[in-house]
Amino acid sequence: MNGRFMRVIVFFDLPVGTAAERREYTRFRKGLVKDGFLMMQESVYCKLALNPTAANSIMAAVRARRPAAGLIQMLVVTEKQFSRMEFVLGEHHSQIIDDEERLVIL
Question: Which domains are seen in the chain, by residue range?
Answer without folding.
Answer: 6-83 (3.30.70.240)
